[in-house]
Structures are given as C-alpha cells and as structure tokens.
Amino acid sequence: MSDSLMQVGIIGGGNFGTAIANIIASNGHRTHLWMRDEQQVADTIAHRENRRYLPGHPLADQIHPTNDLAAAVSGSDAVFVSVPSSSFRSVAGQLKDLLDPATALVSLTKGIEGDSFLMMSQILAQVTGSQRTGALSGPNLAEEVASGHYTGTVIASQDDAVCSMVQELLHSDSFRVYANNDVFGVELGGALKNIYAIICGLASALGVGSNTVGMLITRSLAEMSRLAVSLGANPFTFLGLAGVGDLLVTCTSPLSRNYRLGTLIGGGATLEEAMQEMGKLAEGVNTLQVVHAKSQALGVYMPLVEGLHRILITQADVGEVIGQLMTGSQGVDVEFAAPERWQSN
Question: What angle do CA 106, 109, 115 make, to 5 degrees?
Fold first, then answer.
C-alpha cells in the first residue's frame, strides 16, 4: 500500500479498465469504476466481480462501481480513460466540465481517431484543455494483468509529475511501470500493433510455420518504424515495451482480440461474421482503415497494411494477396539509423 493515498477514477468498465482499477485499489487508493450500463453496475456491486468483461477476478475492496460520471471523477487526483476509440471524443467531452484542472488524465485506449489522426491523449488535451495528460501502453493483456502475471507497461507523458504519479499508483509486486516522454510514439505503437495481430492470427489459422511468424513480426516492426519516422516519432520507442513488446504479445496470444479476429477470418469467416462471433470490438479494424489512408497520403511503403486492407475491406483473395507479398520488392532489412535529433549527447 502507498504511503500517500489518492482518489482515482477509471472511466470504462471493460476488461483492461477493470484490471487497472484492481491494481490501484489493491494499493489502497479509493477507486471509482465508471460503467455506462446501470444494470452492469448493479451486477458488479452485487457480485463484487465484473462478470461481463473480467469474470473470475474479485474486485478489490476499494473499488466503487458507478454509472454516475460526475461521482466517478469528482475530487480525483487521476482519471484513467478506457473506452473504445470510436466513443473516446464523446466521453472526453462529457468529462470536460467535471474535472479539476489539476487532475491527471491518462488514456488506456489504443487507437487512432479517423478524421484527425489524433492519438487518444491528444484528444484528451484538445477536448478538456488539460495540460496534464498521458497514455499507458505495453504488452498488457487484461486477463494476465488481473491474474498477477509479471507484466511491464509504459506511462508516456510530457509531464514528469504525471509519470511519477502513475508509477506510484500502479506499481506492484507483479506490475512494473516504466516512463517515456515520446507520447506520440508510445501511442502510435499501441495502435499499430493491432493491425499486425490480425495478420498473425490469420496466418496462424492458415497453418504457417515459425519462420513465417518470425518474418511477419519483424517486417511488421519495420513498417511501424517506417511510419513513425515519417510522422516524427522516435523510432527507438518501438524497440521497447510499447513497441516490440506489445507487438510480440498481441501477434502470438489467443487472448488478443485482434489475433482472434484474424484466426476467425483465416478460418473462412467474413469480417462481419468474425466481429459478431467475438461480440467485442477489435480496435485493429478501425486502425487499419485509418493507417491505410495515412500511408497512402504520405507515400509510406506498408505492404502488410495494404495486403490486410485488401483482404478485409475489398475482400481480395487471401492466396492472391500472399503471393503478391512474397514476390514484392526486397529492400534492406533495417532501414533507419539513429536520427540526429534522437541521439544522446
């Protein structure tokens, strides 16, 4: 338990928001867990468990479920927002007039807004006017976090005090929190990896070998880094937990929603059928369309993104796309050295 107890609001009662709430509450901090659905709140209070999204994991005593947004954030030292990217701006707008200017705002959502290409912490800052924003990202499968498996994550913020606060709130015997000031790069990595998890899930369903998986993951990292450099992010961010760490986990674990989506599609399901069977949003589908448009606009070479877009959106034949990918141009393996602006003195 921390020596300095705080009050925290978690906005979004999905599996990851609940898992993060449990860590914070287990550290002794008073934690409000906001859910939109009043019936879900009542069930969670009655059973002291989020049976809809994180069954089998009892809630810590300091968690207080609510569907009252004002009550969830009033007086909070920090507010963590964990809602789908499609509704993120709307929820941020509802928070605007409820927050104290000193409250730290941290996004737990991995996604990119379509029209603006803004990351979630940028939306928080833009909509609320807060100067104390950040984002949490990394290889953080909610079920494993909730089960206490050893896990590392990254808190990214330009405000060192926000990073320190989040590290204090979340640090436990099984959960380590590292800091990074490349907020855009950390969030970009968290969003992009969802695309490649779909690809790897699809490949797994097709029965590919380990060599293929190794090629897919490393070429995915190359594409991510290529886009990052074109947008001004630090490419070396992608060598850390928020980059290759998150990519590796989501591209190999059946606990990843995006990976599972890929396996369903590789098994012959349409995108609509796969989404319906899962019953949960796979952020990678929205991110794919946003990133495909951005790569086309910038002229950034992203053949895996292009291939998956053809399979999911234009319904191209999987075998044909794979054949074209394997006969495409063969460039250098590692395309960038340390840009001068990122080198340490």
Answer: 105
Report CA dihedral (154, 247, 281, 79) to the nearest 10 degrees: 0
Q: pTM (2 decimals)?
A: 0.91
Q: Are 49 and 58 in contact (CB under 8 A)?
A: yes
Q: Are residues 123 and 225 in the same domain?
A: no
Which sequence positions are flagged as catalytic?
Answer: 193
Residue 11 CA: distances (Å) to CA of 127, 205, 260: 16, 35, 25
- Whether residue 99 contacts residue 105, with contact meaning beta carbons closer than 8 Å, is answered with yes
Q: Choose the final residue of a domain: 148, 181, 214.
A: 181
End-to-end CA distance of the chain: 39
Same domain, yes or no: 42 and 135: yes
Q: Which residue has the tokens 């394997």?
A: 326
Distance CA 38, CA 45 (A): 11
Q: Which two tokens stand for residue 318?
A: 């999987």
In whole angstroms, give the CA distance from residue 216 to residue 21: 34
Closest by Cα among 339, 124, 95 to 226: 339
pLDDT digits (tens, 9 = 90+) for 199-246: 999 999 999 999 999 999 999 999 999 999 999 999 899 999 999 999
26 and 124 in a single domain? The answer is yes
DSSP-H helix ranges across 130-241: 142-146, 160-170, 183-205, 210-231
Helix (H) or strand (E) holding 81: strand 78-81
Number of H helices, E strands in the chain: 15, 8
Beta partners for residue 112, in sequence order: 119
